[in-house]
Specification:
Layout (H helix, E strand, L loop, with lengths): L4 H27 L2 H8 L3 H10 L2 H37 L4 H34 L1 H36 L14 H13 L5 H12 L17 E2 L5 H11 L3 E4 L7 E4 L17 E2 L2 E2 L5 H11 L3 E5 L4 E6 H7 L14
Parallel strand pairs: 1-2, 5-6
Antiparallel strand pairs: 2-3, 3-4, 6-7
Helix pairs in contact: 1-4, 1-5, 1-6, 2-3, 3-6, 4-5, 4-6, 5-6, 7-8
């Protein structure tokens, strides 16, 4: 390597800049939100390049690590010896024994090069990339794609070797990070936002209840000891109207209380003779098990247009829930929620 200090300085600046580049693109694509890159990809070639890189993240990380390692080796081969040779005569001129001056110069050169590489070449670009992930990923994606194209065979070999080691310990490698959040993560975010005043308390409660819906089952809506309103299978229109007046319910079950088989809406009785059998106006009851997830029950009831479901565990009927019961669970105030009128 040339002893010209300008050549060494220029080479050092270039090497540190390259190290910063590899570190920045690595952390940028880890921190970037895929949906933001997708939005920008419709109008930006750089965003499309960043999105492609995020879909082969392990290969990009291999390229970044290869680049960072090459930069570290280059600093050790070029900058450290130059700094060492520059400091040694200065310390020797202070009257130190040569072996002490040489050893101290070596240590100082190592400290200086390590500081430059660690702080300027890694920590600073890492902080910038994390603070502006989508911007930095978009800015650096195209040159990184060019580098990956040049060394892709080597990257694939390194990546395959790493994947074999990972599989050997029982872990399946993935090519991209997950963009989804777990319910616990979302709950923690909602609670934190409410605690710092960034989210209204009532609104945060509603969001939290919606998230918790994933963990609730139909059994959580059942009221122990609540009597089922039903009329006998051979009941009449008058029986249904009487049961509706006494209970305040619009939908009345038909059949034995232990296992009703049909349901009728009171409006179906308005134009019928009071002594007319109710069976022709009824329809088969919709059933769910108590362990059915509440979100699944909500979806099924809405899609099938059933506003009432009998909870049947096979041996016996344990209760009845309505679509309004499920929707009410989402209301932070606990007030009834208006359900669609379609039956």
């Amino acid at each position: 390597m040339s002893e010209n200090p300008w050549v060494v300085t220029t080479a050092t600046v270039v090497i540190i800049a390259l190290s910063a580049f590899f570190v920045a693109i690595e952390f940028a694509l880890i921190a970037a939100k895929p949906h933001r890159l997708e939005d920008a990809a419709t109008e930006s070639r750089s965003a499309r390049a960043a999105l492609r890189s995020s879909h082969e993240l392990t290969l990009l990380l291999a390229g970044s690590q290869l680049g960072i390692t090459m930069c570290a080796l280059a600093l050790g081969a070029i900058t450290k010896p130059a700094v060492h040779h520059a400091i040694t005569p200065v310390l020797d001129g202070w009257g130190m024994p040569y072996w002490i001056a040489d050893t101290l110069a070596f240590v100082l050169a190592l400290v200086i090069v390590t500081f430059l590489h660690l702080v300027v070449g890694e920590m600073a670009p890492k902080s910038w990339a994390i603070a502006h992930p989508e911007r930095s990923a978009t800015l650096l994606a195209i040159p990184m794609r060019a580098f990956m194209w040049l060394v892709r065979p080597l990257l694939r070999a390194l990546n395959q070797a790493a994947n074999r080691l990972v599989r050997a310990v029982g872990v399946e490698p993935v090519d991209q990070t997950s963009s989804s959040q777990s319910p616990d993560d979302l709950l923690q975010l909602v609670q934190h936002s409410a605690n710092v005043g960034a989210l209204d308390a009532a609104f945060s409660a509603q969001i939290a209840q919606t998230i918790n819906l994933q963990d609730l089952t139909v059994a959580d809506l059942l009221v122990p000891g609540k009597e089922i309103t039903a009329v006998p299978s051979d009941g009449t229109v008058a029986d249904v109207q009487r049961a509706a007046r006494e209970s305040g319910h619009l939908r009345i079950l038909v059949g034995p209380r232990e296992r009703p088989t049909h349901v009728v809406h009171v409006r179906e009785t308005l134009l019928r003779d009071p002594d007319e059998p109710i069976a022709p106006a009824s329809r088969e009851v919709f059933t769910l098990t108590s362990q059915t997830p509440l979100h699944e029950a909500l979806t099924t009831m809405r899609e099938s247009r059933n506003h009432l479901a009998v909870v049947d565990d096979g041996e016996r009927v344990t209760g009845v829930i309505t679509l309004a019961d499920v929707l009410r669970r989402l209301s932070p105030s606990g007030q009834a929620v208006e359900a669609p009128a379609t039956v």
